[in-house]
Amino acid sequence: xxxxxxxxxxxxxxxHLMEILQKSQLDMDHLTDGAGQETFLSLLDSQDVRTAxxxxxxxxxxxxxxxxxxxxxxxxxxxxxxxxxxxxxxxTMAEFREFTGNSFRGMVHPEDLDAVEQSISKQITGxxxxxxxxxxxxxxxxxxxxxxxxYGHFVHSEFFRDIFYVFISDATEKHNRQIAEKESLIQASQxxxxxxxxxxxxxxxxxxxxxxxxxxxLEVIQGLSVNYESIFYADAAQxxxxxYRLSVRCRALFGEDFQVYKFSLFMLRYINAWVHPExxxxxxxxxxxxxxxxxxxxxxxxxxNFRVASGGEVQYLQLRIxxxxxxxxxxxxxxxxxxxxxELQREMEQKxxxxxxxxNATQAINAKNTFLSNMSHDIRTPLNAIFGFATLAKQNxxxxxxxxxxxxxxxxxxxxxxxxxxxxxxxxxxxxxQVQVVEAPCDLCNTIEEVFSFLKPQTExxxxxxxxDCSGVSHKMVYCDQEKLKQLTLYLANNxxxxxxxxxxxxxVLTQRENLPNQYAVFQLAVEDTGIGISAEFLNRxxxxxxxxxxxxxxxxxxxxxxxxxxKSIVDMMGGAIDVKSVVGKGSTFTVTLRLRLLLENxxxxxxSTCERxxxxxxxxxxxxxxxxxxxxxxxxxxxxxLQELGFTIETAVNGRIAVEKVxxxxxxxFDVILxxxxxxxxDGWQAAEEIRKLENPExxxxxxxxxxxxxxxxxxxxxxESGMNAHLPKPLDVAMLMDTxxxxxxx
Length: 748
Prior knowledge:
Elements: H1 4-23, H2 34-41, H3 47-61, E1 65-70, E2 77-80, H4 82-87, H5 93-100, H6 110-126, E3 131-139, E4 145-155, E5 163-170, H7 172-188, H8 193-221, E6 228-235, E7 240-245, H9 248-254, E8 261-262, H10 263-274, H11 280-286, H12 289-296, E9 301-310, E10 313-323, E11 332-339, H13 341-395, H14 400-431, E12 440-443, H15 444-462, E13 465-472, E14 477-480, H16 482-498, E15 505-516, E16 520-529, H17 536-539, H18 552-555, H19 563-573, E17 577-583, E18 587-598, H20 604-607, E19 625-629, H21 633-645, E20 649-653, H22 656-665, E21 673-676, H23 685-693, H24 698-701, E22 705-709, H25 714-722, E23 727-730, H26 735-747
């Protein structure tokens, strides 16, 4: 394990070498000239001196700055490597000592010195491992101010004076880049959302790189990395290896004195004792001296991952080998062993995520292709009918009865096409989260009866027995979203009717299962049929969009497989659950369970309501006057003809601005109702409605306005009401619905 002994070992050798040089009246600069080398070489007979010299050479080859200074008031510099001299633009150690006053204090900008000293003292006091990290400015020899990153370690020893050894680097470019990045991010806040997110991601990546660099330097402070459980210096030419840090696995080979060992023998014993049998040949190959020299001749470093067996557990290690000798000569190397279990685990997880993403993308592509194929077929089928019967109608103009039959079929095909479009839009709106549940007083039985009455004629024409049972409901007045409940029931019941053959049965049963605290109760809506049934394999996918067990061609039934998907979405929005049971050839049962709040007041008006539809109200002689606002010439012609046939007097406007002008210039009573399109040039329908409501004459400002638009999303209806309109009806024009709405709003 790593401890202070290793620090003492390295630092003591460097200090020992400095003392020898001082006694010999030599400095580090003298080692590069002939006379100095001659004197120093005479000292290399001592193993300690040789070891210290190799350590200093190793430190001089490091890419970052490294220095040692005494931890006293003067903070005298003991040693600085070449990279440190380069940072301060000093050519020699003597020049560096003179420039800094041979003190750490001379390296720090005067304005930063007090704060730096206080920060180091505070960090050392509160650090378990006596580490500190500071940033400060320095004045370089040429007068330039540079930012310095300082990673320091305080060492207290009984054998020599207290010292700091420090790793430094010139961080000016990084400091300026961080400032520029922050300014760029502030400016980017005004950009589009996607661009902003891209910049954030880029910043996060660079920040992650900075963090990794910070961690790497901390690792170096602890002996070239806390993650490296073993670190060795080896001389390939001499086949020798010397430890700087030892793991439990390696300590038994070297003992406590960290003596020099034969490199080839150490690797042989290590591989045989610890390396997984399947990886032993690999490690023998990459740690052979010939292989190391070959690899490092073209690169400064290389690594290999392998497995070891530890206490019955398999661990992943990485061996990294670095050439720290002279360029072009592979002799001195540093070897580090570290655990990489987490990195490999993350890599495997990323591969799994990529595989899942690819699988999801493939499924999405297949689903899209299936959807487009079904959509193409199911759109072209009614379109083919429309074009075909239109052609037949033209060819049989002299036969009114035949033409009427063709028109009836054209209308049926058109409604199929409209139903398809509505379902696709409704699903899109639901998935976008734009649909909200609105709780209001609701008569459960009457709501279900409306759906029953709507589908009853269809079941009679098809020869299906159709029944409704609400006898199991004791509290039919509740708070819920009536429209969504009606829509849910319609999708389930219509699905049952569609897939039930003539002579079959379809039943709707509404029951109250149990009463809950706080005036809530559980209700179940069951729709059962004796239709064709659903296979067990398809039941798991029945609520997925655009999925059908058999497409239109195979089943002979029109549809794209969205009704049950929308029904499931409505159930989820209402906080309920839906279950389906089915047997092929015998039928299916869909059961919806909802938790609803009871409305306990006596609402006789609700109980006496009926779901029977009134006849279309036709205006009396003289008719009602309508201002029809529509920019599309074809729609304007169709709507005008239909309304005039019903006895209305029509005035037209082709945009909202003209409509506002006509209303403002009219007399009270000249227009009874305004039918307003939404999307129009010059001024849209919402703006026109707001302008009409602002007119000074209250009789003109309060003329009923009905939106008549292809914009049918919930947000569109809400905006129409907020702009002052009385109602919002969808296109294509439903004459019965329009007449019913006109009658309601004009009676108020």
